[in-house]
Amino acid sequence: MKRIITVIFLTVIVYLYLHNPILAFTGGTGLIKLLYIVALFFFLKNMGLTRATFRRYGKESTLFIILVFYAIIRGVLGGEFTLSYAHIILFIECFILPCVFSAYWIKNKLTAKDFIQLLLIVSSVAAVISTLCVVIPSFGSYVRFQLLYMQKDSFLAEALFRGFGISEELTSGYGYVQAFCFVLGLRYIKENKWFIFFMPLVILSVALNARTGIIIMAIGILLHFLTLKKMKMALSSVVVIFVLIGGAILFFSSLDLSEDTIGYVQDFFDEASLFAENKDVSDARTANVLFNEMIIFPRDFMEWIFGRGYSLFSAKVGNSDIGYIIQLNYGGLIYVFIWAMILLRLFVRMRRTCFDKFIPLFLFVGVLLLNVKGNTFSNGSTFRFLMLIYFVLTSQSKNFFINNKNNTVKVLSD
User: Fold this and answer.
1) Which residue, among 362, 386, 380, 327, has the nearest Cα to 74 in the 3D structure?
2) What span, in angstroms and rounded, lies between the C-alpha atoms of 365 and 25?
3) Residue 330 and residue 336: Cα distance in Å, rounded?
């Protein structure tokens, strides 16, 4: 019974952290803020362990602090100061919170495989909610218009053909996290055979919310077999991908979905076929907008170095969805360089300490690719997912020792 309660508690914690649902009664505040209280409570009860865990990530904290200070300076010198505040929140939610969570994992002597299983449970819960929103329209309408906080001019208020579930980022990060979890579930299916029953629902939650997640699943499946050094399986994985897509289409057709929803999914496959047939990218609407209309470079030397100080994503004129373009124009090459150092540190350390080299490879390939479609390097579901996995899996390193009997902690540098 105690184990069941613990699993439920951790499932809620991780769901709130990854998806940060904003409910109507909160007035626009994400539920991730509740985790501030939980983290503070754990810290006060386990100061020695938590401090030791923070010390172990000294280089990472230094890089994030540099990022925050640069954002503050950029705001002071002329720019959107709200973005400076956003970087402070990023430090709290993408560094401090997952660091405290990893300390909890260490204290309770939980393993990396336990964490993977927890992610799959969270993904399954999310997939079930999304599926219910799709197959029961009344439930979907209740979630969208009454349970969730919805502004009058919100995209989801009008785009009824997508956005099924409970999350802050239903049309982006939510679907991407589900795609990552799908591949992890496939990778560790022997230890989590129960996840097979939820796989079709996870595919549905990806396809009907963020179609780009299908690409992440395809890349993940390919890398999965390649890292197992099964070349034949790697090639046959292409067939598996098309079988999954075909199965998804059949599943969609069996549901009472709107024509707009079916069209939204079908457009993705139409554009994907254009790439597969080596046709002009301009024939694909999404790619045409991304690579022709949204590539905007800094206007002068100073902007190349320091940026404009505001986000092109919200610009009324000359806006862009491409993450790399947004980051370059916001903070210039200095800002891009700081982020490059952070990602390099994360990848190198995770590559060295992770029990499965596939995980850092897949995560970073996926995240770097997704940054083309949106600003992934921000306080969103995708980057929080990356940081949570990073802290928990690197905390499994043999260079960290804890003696629960006398509460002593010894940390060696990684």
Assistant:
1) 327
2) 38
3) 9
- Identify the CA nearest to 360 among candidates 340, 384, 386, 381: 386
The token pair that represents 10 in the structure block: 């951790």
Q: What is the pLDDT of residues 36-47, one digit of tens each?
A: 999 999 999 999
pLDDT for 49-59, tens place per residue?
999 999 999 99
* Two tokens, residue 172: 């982006």
Alpha helices in 228-296 (DSSP H): 231-254, 259-276, 285-288
Residue with tokens 């009324």, as numbered in its chain:
316
- DSSP 8-state assignment for residue 154: -
pLDDT band at 82 (very low <50, low <70, confident <90, very high): confident
The total number of residues shown for the chain amounts to 414
- 344-68-31 Cα angle (round to 5): 95
366: Cβ–Cβ under 8 A, 6 or more apart, which residues? 176, 179, 180, 216, 219, 220
- Looking at per-residue pLDDT, the higher value among 228 and 204 belongs to 204
